[in-house]
Amino acid sequence: MADTMDEIFPETLATSPAVSDADLQKRAGADGIVKNGVIAAMAVGLVPIPVIGVVGLVAANLTMLQALSHHYGVPFQRDVAKSAVVSLVGGLAPVGLGVGFSEALKLIPGFGSLAGAAGTSVLAGAVTYAVGRAFIQHFEEGETFLSLDLARLRKVVRFEFKRGRKVAETLATSPQEA
After folding, report:
1. Is 31 exposed, middle or buried (0-12, 13-18, 19+ CB in 10 A)?
2. What pLDDT does residue 49 have?
């Protein structure tokens, strides 16, 4: 069971040469923000009411991005962040189809509702992880919301989504500490 931050977020700056302790602490704080965002998105995804999962996914990502921007000293631009989240999530075709299917399953009472909620939860966690990791990289490069390169961020999100799915599945099956 993975219950340490290093097991859940395996890539750290420690593998990079000439990284200061301050950089490592900054990244650890950012990873904690992303982990909390993933957990929040997954929790909202468990709500068995259709559409709530999608709305909650956007809200969880905006909250996470606001915390990351504060953490990195970047002015938060809510409208730009919201547009970026919608664009990045919409650019993941498998996610759109998976979330749509999971949300539709929620309409079926009983097992359908449970299966739909579980599917939405894991996908929401994976997307949130990917968006968070993309913005950590963006902010660590000294960029802001006003200098977003969505094409570049989409590539990072697609790459990180695969890892995010594993992270979300791990979080879904591991007991969490309070």
Report:
1. buried
2. 65
Q: Indicate the residue type of 57.
A: L
pTM score, two decimals? Answer: 0.77
Q: Give the end-to-end CA distance of the chain in Å, rounded to a whole number.
A: 16
Token pair recorded at residue 177: 């500490």
Dist CA 169 CA 136 (whole Å): 22
In 3D space, the residue among 132, 118, 128 whose CA is nearest the CA of residue 172 turns out to be 118
Query: Could you tell me which of 98, 31, 85, 35 has the C-alpha nearest to residue 55?
Result: 85
Contact 126, 147 (CB under 8 A): no
Size (the chain), residues? 178
Burial of 83 (C-beta count, 10 Å sphere; 0-12/13-18/19+): middle
Could you tell me the two tokens for 152?
């570049």
pLDDT at 75 over 70: yes
Report which secondary-structure segment, H or E, holds 90.
helix 78-90
